[in-house]
Amino acid sequence: MQGRIREEDMAALRDRADIVDVISGYLQLRKAGRTFKGLCCFHQEKSPSMMVDPAKGLYHCFGCGAGGDVFTFVREVEGLSFNEAAQRLADRFGVQLRFTGGSDQSGDGSRRRLIEAHSAAAAFFKELFQHSPQAAAARKYLEGRGFNQDDAQAWGLGYSPPERDTLYRHLLGRKFKPKEIVDAGLATAGASGEHRDTFRNRLMFPVADLSGQVVGFGARALGDEQPKYLNSSKTPIYDKARILFGLDRSKAAIVKVGHSIVTEGYTDVIALHKVGMTNAVATCGTALGEDHFSLIKRFCDRAILAFDADAAGAVASERGFGMHAKMGLEVLIAPIPAGKDPADVALIEGADATKLIFDAARPLMLFVLEAEIARHQLDTAESKAKAVRAAAAKLAWEPNRVARGEHAFWVARRIGVAPEQVMLEISEASEASSAGRGRPAELRLPGHVKVEREALGLLLDRPEELMSDLGGIAAFLTEEHFDQPEHRVVFKALKDAAQAGAPVMDFLPDPASRRLAAELALAPVLTKDEAELFARLEEFRLARQTGALRAKLDRLDPSTETAAHDAAFEELMRLEDTRRGFER
Ligand SMILES: [Zn+2]
If we measure between CA atoms, which residue out of 238, 240, 205, 201 comes closest to residue 221? Predict the structure, then answer.
């Protein structure tokens, strides 16, 4: 359980942590009227779409949708928890934070202890790697791969000794409690109470979070132990699905060059950095997933995967494709020669050859299409038609029309048919799939969604006035007035915040809702007639309620369920009356 920061300390921090000051540390802000504008640090862009409103204490990017308050900003840009972000701001602006519900130790303290345990373990492993005779095999392995002492030093590589509990005893000596060491995932407790180190006789790769603190390890076996690579299991500070090895060192380079290289190995990252490709990161013994994509998307719009064919194939599923396409992340595949890994290519063939391979990366879609087409013989009209149909089905996943057209030409050339034939198959394939699933990119919002957004924008702008129980124009609103689940979340936070007399940002449960709230709060108010806007919300609510009631009536049998039917019918009549009142 995380401790909560005392409200009075939060209030002091909120007063002092100037959002313009904080964001200026990451990007250049220019004054534009009563707001500030700059190039967004969460996506790559040439003209500024990041807007900061010091009066409201909010920011919003019109390009990528990032947004929130000063705490959201620090959390997202540094990858921190709320308490960590608050602590960082408190340190900077000289505010002392105290926690409710126990002492400092109980709340964020336990998390801090796990990080401290990792830091101590990393230092211990590193010392052994550099000086212990036991680590000779580890040093030899690394040399054999083409790395030297400087590389090991730079990446903090270490060695975990083979005995049962060397690290455990070392950490006890450094005043860590057995529970802290076990919670950190660095040792396990046996049935008879003895402890056993998690990592033994392995080459240790420390894995850091975005702020550079070691939170886990990847460990390569030096003997025949299985598995060959052992990774930290999930702990309060480490989740392999949400972390990329090397990202803490690569993020600046990634933003600068506009893309990230994603590999599967710790040594790949170290080798690529060694030859100057300092935008390389790696997954930590797990498949590349949605959280990795959104992590990458914070720094750039393009990921080049240096995966072997099997792993790349897994990313190239329809689900995978939908995932990153939706985020606006372009995924390319680098043609790493079969049987080699990126580390071999970098260390044996050198910087220039490696750069050529990554320059030759092709869109993931082409990789998918090639795999599909390769299954067909292409020697008869029949087999060509089958290949076109199969390729078109995959191409229909591509939401970008320009890319789809270009890929269609490529498919036509590759199979040896006219491009029109491919286009025709695609339109049929996409009609078939959109009939089943609904078109994903619906740009025109239905009327009620616009009205809900406008209304929330107004409420976020002047919550106290509009939602006041004493005659606020929107005091009658309930969560039911909002049909979109994400709008309901924001409305509920508005109500809770109004009740607590605190900022709404404190009541929003996740980044998506904070983002949405910041976007709506900073959007210009278009409505001329506020009363009319809230009346339309009520109208939409009544229409939904009526629809639900009609559906219920349809299901009820008037002859056997007479009472329920009559009640529903009367209710419907009442509703219809109210609705007519609105239409007048
Ligand atoms: Zn942005």
Answer: 201
